[in-house]
Amino acid sequence: MEERAGARRRSRSPPMALLLLLLLSACSSAASGAPVLGEDYVRPPPAPRRCGVHRKALLSLFPWSKKKASSSASDPQQVHISLAGAKHMRVTFITDDNSVPSVVDYGTEAGTYTSTSQGESTSYSYLMYSSGKIHHVVIGPLNDNTVYYYQCGGHGPEFQFKTPPSQFPLSLAVVGDLGQTSWTTSTLNHIKQCEHDMLLLPGDLSYADYMQHLWDSFGTLVEPLASTRPWMVTEGNHEKENILFFKSGFQSYNARWKMPYEESGSTSNLYYSFEVAGVHAIMLGSYTDYDESSDQYAWLKADLAKIDRKRTPWVIILLHAPWYNSNWAHQGEGDSMMAAMEPLLYAAHVDIVIAGHVHAYERAKRVYKGGIDPCGAVHITIGDGGNREGLAHRYRNPKPTWSVFREASFGHGELKIVNATHAHWTWHRNDDEEPVRTDDAWINSLAGSGCIQDGSHEYRKILMSP
Questions:
Q1: Which of 247, 261, 363, 405 is the most buried (most CB within 10 A)?
Q2: Active-site residue 330, yes or no?
Q3: How confident is the model over 132-136, as a mean pLDDT?
């Protein structure tokens, strides 16, 4: 049966289909205005030698050909978890065998499962590719800050995860534009070294770009981390994968990475919110309608108006295209979204806005309407997880007054919410095998500031108006 399953998987990507997918990927990049290597982007410098070994710049072009030696068609693959409402977790996994049930057995002791949850499944076809059976199972209610052991589909290995705490401190790992390169591997290894309760990713996950098997290889690559801590993601431009008159956008992303949008009152998987340990987090969609007449704008306005800063003193936003960016790459691409939505964020006293897209790191002061404002949000760009397109080295000079620190290197961020008033942000640059902390800052929540006390009445009117 395993041989037949392998044959089925191989038949999903005939050589002619691969050529077609590669051509579509190239055409999409050109049509979307993606920067060309040598213009806004340059490739990263060669990694330094260590112990006589020089790391490859990229992983294999065909990483999906390397399946786990012990896997069978019934074994769960690409396991990852995400929050699914208060005290619940969504477990996502894929099987080649369509007869595997969408169930997860779980408990607080290894090998002993005291609860079982049944979920739903989906699949999709994309040109010559057919996905496996994609299972989404919500489990719970779960205890906070507790290790759970679980098995997917009643078959295969045991996994484990730890639920986030219900109160401070809360540790968040942050990475954008991840991809599947050797730099990605370094970034993931560095994140594994840090104690974190959850990972946040503001778009551009797999860089599959129409080659659907790269979604499979990405799922396998991140499984060791994504199966142990919840990954909360939003879409980037590389998740679009739309083909004019033939395929609508985000089909693969929506099928594989289902987020708790329904639980937050959203009607789209491309934007949603969640709460955890005193933090209200909002994931926005840079590539779906966001003007004042859009569903996303109406949903955001309503979501912000419902926030209770006594229960969640911290409000953070994640989106893909940055609003404040002094790099020449993707300059101005977030301006129209900022013009529409920044007044809402300012009215709600959002603390931090984290973006990706630009393949470099930058941290700004609190800003609003293009200038420094003590009641604005701290903006951070962190689209440097390890993508295959290289780094964006060219910055605009002189540096804007709102820009505090900027550097074109691969790396990841860590946000530790210490208590209701203070959070510690650090950015860690990849330096061969070791992460190097290059930037850090203490951030004070606006919940306890004069911004809310002095301006709450005036700006709440913006949120409450029809």
A1: 363
A2: yes
A3: 98
